[in-house]
Write a structure and sequence with these properties.
By secondary structure, this protein is mainly α. It has one domain: Ribonucleotide Reductase, subunit A (Orthogonal Bundle). The protein is about 65% helix and about 0% strand.
């Protein structure tokens, strides 16, 4: 066995470790962080650890039965897609972590992997309570639009995870920015639109959304910016980043419009979805240091709905009835994300 993989006494100082291409000793030292955003995000992730068993799903089956047929279809197809996102992300993160060299970044990725698995567990708990777990998890076999979206997301993940260059890893990080920052948002807003009709689903999504938007997205935005800062990135690579987020917008809107056309529910329109996704995509580009390229609208109703439900401590709900009372609020500096 080659022990250099685990211990390298001739490696570089911890404060000199780059995200990729470094020569680490093998130590994880949270007292000495080269970037600071990594340990800050780790602390925020850790402070906000939650478990699906703490969400009250006892009435989910009855509540689901009271939905209209269209609302039930939206519910099932939304969770079928969101569950794939977290499953794919967990596997991708394992590969991305293996290719990274900075040990604090790797440690933070390890915690995110655990949280993605926790999200997958939450879908299983929720859908089991609802009584349609097998149906929802197998919908990709029967719904072509769902299967197409899953395939396109998987292809974007797989395209640049070889680790042969920093440019490739930058684009790989971009795929994760797209997942955390684009592919989840309409799904979140659909469940929030159903709101009090399905409090178990709403409350579970609140916690998942807080993880994705408050820590997972900032983590990969900072990884993207740091890779670019530490290396000379080709212009064509940055151009490809724009292509990737355009693809993400197209993928998200294609699926959203399919749901709207086939299962319309009150309050959702094609224009509203398009404005919402474009606004989110512009924000993601800004956060990774690139220029926005989509038509910007005023903040939409769906954006306000997502923001409202990020403020978990301000909403009356039936969750966290035992050992956890508040989702931690943080003033940590994570690059102003």
């Amino acid at each position: 066995m080659n022990s250099k993989h685990y211990y390298n006494p001739n490696g570089e100082d911890i404060l000199d470790e780059k995200i990729f291409g470094g020569n680490p000793t093998g130590f994880v030292d949270f007292n000495r962080s080269k970037y600071q955003w990594d340990s800050n995000i780790y602390d925020l992730m850790n402070a906000n650890t939650w478990f699906p068993s703490e969400v009250n799903t006892s009435t989910e089956k009855k509540n689901f039965a009271n939905l209209t047929e269209n609302e039930q279809a939206i519910y099932k197809l939304t969770f079928a897609q969101l569950s794939f996102n977290d499953s794919a992300q967990e596997e991708y993160l394992s590969d991305f972590r293996r290719l990274a060299s900075n040990r604090l970044v790797k440690a933070t990725l390890s915690l995110q992997i655990m949280q993605e698995v926790n999200h997958s567990k939450s879908y299983a708990v929720l859908l089991d309570a609802c009584g349609n777990s097998d149906e929802v998890f197998n919908l990709y076999k029967h719904d072509e639009a769902l299967n197409r979206k899953n395939n396109r997301i998987a292809e974007q993940f797989a395209s640049y995870i070889g680790g042969t260059s920093v440019d490739e890893m930058l684009l790989s990080a971009m795929a994760s920015v797209n997942l955390e920052g684009v592919y989840f948002l309409l799904g979140f807003s659909y469940i929030y639109t159903l709101g009090d009709k399905v409090p178990g689903a709403r409350d579970m999504i609140q916690f998942i959304a807080r993880d994705e938007l408050n820590t997972h997205l900032p983590l990969f935005a900072n990884i993207f910016k740091t890779i670019q800062k530490e290396n000379k990135i080709a212009t064509k690579t940055l151009d490809k980043s724009y292509e990737m987020i355009q693809d993400a917008v197209d993928i998200e809107l294609e699926y959203g419009k399919y749901l709207l056309e086939n299962y319309p529910i009150m309050g959702l329109t094609e224009e509203l979805m398009e404005q919402t996704v474009h606004n989110y995509a512009n924000d993601r580009l800004t956060k990774i240091g690139l220029d926005p390229i989509f038509t910007q609208s005023s903040t939409t109703y769906l954006q306000k709905l997502v923001t409202k439900h990020l403020n978990i401590n301000d909403i009356k709900s039936n969750f966290f009835e035992s050992n956890v009372s508040n989702y931690a609020k943080s003033s940590l500096d994570i690059n102003d994300f």
